[in-house]
Amino acid sequence: MSKNNAVKIENSELEQTKKRYYRKNTDFAKLIEKIKLWPARSGVLHGVKSVQLKGEIIEITTHCGENFIVRNSRNSRAARWLRNKWCGSACRACKIPDWKIQKYSSTMLSKQWGSTLQ
């Protein structure tokens, strides 16, 4: 994806809202289903349209039409990027609303406290 197709995410522009807490080591597929965001390797955050769990494999379809087939691993690159919020921009083709980015930025992933998403 080209860099001109991305929208810069700035924490200073986003207002602080109600914080949501999830467990850090929860099932990765359930976390993707709940947050509905996917971090690409280029650092772009995509909006998730559908998530299909097939054993240990997750098939993710984004709003911009990209398909990802990934392993359901808590230690994967994408899981770390979501937990640590390392994505720098949002995909323009996915048209992620500001409220969703704001909600994601206020979400906290804690080791000892939060929802387990069961």
Question: Could you outline the blueprint of secondary structure elements for this entry?
Answer:
Elements: E1 6-8, E2 20-23, H1 28-35, E3 37-39, E4 44-54, E5 57-62, E6 67-71, H2 77-84, E7 89-91, H3 98-105, E8 107-110
Parallel strand pairs: 2-8, 4-7
Antiparallel strand pairs: 1-7, 3-4, 4-5, 5-6
**Sheet with the most strands?**
6 strands, mixed
N-to-C order of helices and strands: EEHEEEEHEHE
Integer-rounded radius of gyration: 14 Å
End-to-end distance = 34 Å
The tally of beta strands, per DSSP, is 8
Number of domains: 1
- What is the count of DSSP helices, taking H or I runs of 4+ residues? 3
Which structural class best describes the helix and strand composition? Answer: alpha/beta
* Shape summary: globular
Low-confidence stretches: none
Assess the beta-strand content as a share of residues. 25-35%
The residue fraction in helices comes out at 10-25%
User: Overall pLDDT, averaged?
Assistant: 81
